[in-house]
Every structure is written in structure tokens, then in C-alpha cells.
User: Fold this.
Amino acid sequence: MIPELVTFDCAQTIIQVRWTVEGFARDCAQHVGIDLPDEAYSDYRRAYFERLPEFLALNLRRDPAEGAEFWRRLAGDWLERHGLSRHKATALWEASERLGFGPDSILFSPYADVVPCLDQLKTMGVRVAVVSNWDYSLHRVLGMFGLHERFELVLASLEEGVEKPDPRLFEICLDRLGVSPDRALHVGDDPIDDLGGATAAGMRALLIDRERDQSGDRVLASLTHLPEAFAWTR
Assistant:
């Protein structure tokens, strides 16, 4: 049965993500000529998780400017603890913008099968949305590659205050788009967050695993195989 709506996870489903807290801090620091020992980046990661409640709260307010200030303040405090001027935080922030969200991003790249898949679904009259465990930057990342406008709705879990596999994130999507669960299908890379969460919401679901040689058994080797896979989820 062809679904009325297909929802997609983002990270490792439509966008390849290469990010860790300490790894990106190191990349940005090296980009501006800051040389610190390994333990400094472990400390940065620890400081981030200590402030995670603050970061979660600002996502609910959906204010990117507030988010930018959070990262600058975190960087400034971290630099001071390691004997450097907090004024270098501006340089770190600018490096993060170039390396993360610039045209040569080292963090994000779209998979080659995404646009062909979306074109196929559009031809079939299938509506599409994104349901992802992500922060407020989800909209910006999709926009970098001209993908945001391809989706009728983009839901970032941190903006909604609920994360997959909690079925409520899927239910929010279905409610806003006016689609019943039995008319929707979700595609993602995580058996728990995506397969488990979507099925708990009453949706059909498929996994994407590009390491496979061929699609089958409710697992896609390529998103371009999605239309033919609709028959697996009757």
C-alpha cells in the first residue's frame, strides 16, 4: 500500500553526520591555531554535558541567537580554564561556522540517494516530513543542501521536548499534518529510535542500511528502493 506520508530520520538517513563534542572542539581549535592537550577536549565535553539542561531549555524557545551565545559562552569559560583568553571564543565560534555550516562543511553531507528518492515520492503524490532527534540547527543543516523546502514539516526533537523512541514525537508530526498512523511510514537507521518508535505510534517502518548489498526484509540498501518496498509493509 502506498502511504499518504513518509517521514524520514535525518542523521545517517538523509544527512551523513560526522560530529562528536570533543572532536569538533579540537577541529575548531586547531583551525585557529590553538594547541591544547587531549585532556582539555575531554574537559570541554564534560562542560557541555554539565550545561546540557540549559541547552535543552533554549531549544524549546527556538532562538538560534540564544543558541549561538550558549556556544560562545561555553567556549570562553573553557578557554579561561586552560589559561587562554576568553576573547578567543569569537575566533572559535567563527571557525565552527565555517567548518560546520560553510560550503566545505566537515560535519554534514547529504547522501546521493536522497534527492532521487524525494523526486520519486513527489511523482507518486506522497507527502514527506522529517522527524529527527536533533537540535535547533536541523533546519539550517537541511537548508544548506536545499532540502528543507522539500519537506512539508521538519521536526527537531529538542524543539519539541520529546525524543525518539518516544512515540509522541511521531504523533506530533501526524497530528500537525492530519494523517492517521496507518497511512504513514517512517524510514530511519536506528532499530530502537526509528523502527521501535514509529511502530509504537502505529506507523509502518523501514530501516536504511547502506552497507547492505541489496534491499529486503524491511531494510533498504538505498532510499531509491523505497517505492518498491512499500509492498513489504502492508
